[in-house]
Specification:
Blueprint (H helix, E strand, L loop, with lengths): L10 H26 L3 H31 L9 H31 L4 E2 L5 E2 L7 H36 L3 H5 L2
Antiparallel strand pairs: 1-2
Helix pairs in contact: 1-2, 2-3, 3-4
């Protein structure tokens, strides 16, 4: 790890964490708003949701590379079950950060819808239009969103537990 303190994540890793946290919370709530409205607001939310998902996917790639190259601080002195739970939750978060936007992109491709970015250019489709695949991927995208929100809430609860109850260095390792 190249940060100045071996007990903290690198500055880039911390920036990516907090930027993606804000983006993930935003996109989850925008997604909820999209399915809860049929007004003109729906189109605005869609126009934000799609490019934000693509941006988060790109940041996820940078985050993975950063994690591999710069590593992570050594684990805190935790009971084995907490270390295992932390490892499993981080694997789930990383998997969902990549899988959720890829499933969304594939869903839109299967529906024949472009993922239009700012400036009007569109990402290439991941698959050909297929109504059956679209229906399956739409359901998967929804259920992955529920799972993602649940894992994010567990992650926040664990961070607060480390900050307020254990008062160990876990929260400080990722604090801005």
């Amino acid at each position: 790890m190249t940060s100045t303190s071996p007990t903290r994540y690198s500055g880039l890793a911390r920036w990516l964490h907090w930027a993606m946290a804000a983006g993930i919370l935003a996109i989850l709530f925008i997604g909820i708003g999209m399915v809860a409205t049929v007004s003109d607001l729906h189109l605005t939310l869609v126009a934000i949701h799609r490019p934000l998902g693509a941006l988060l996917l790109a940041l996820w790639v940078v985050r993975l590379v950063t994690r591999v190259v710069r590593g992570a601080p050594p684990p805190a002195d935790l009971p084995g079950w907490q270390r295992g739970a932390a490892h499993a939750s981080h694997l789930a978060l990383y998997a969902l950060m990549g899988l959720q936007p890829l499933v969304g992109w594939a869903m839109l491709s299967a529906g024949g819808y472009p993922v239009t970015m700012l400036g009007g250019w569109a990402l290439p489709p991941l698959m050909h239009a297929d109504v059956v695949a679209f229906a399956f991927l739409r359901g998967a995208h929804t259920w992955l969103a529920y799972a993602f929100l649940a894992v994010v809430l567990l992650h926040v609860a664990a961070a607060l537990f480390h900050w307020w109850v254990r008062r160990d260095r876990v929260f400080a390792s990722m604090a801005p």
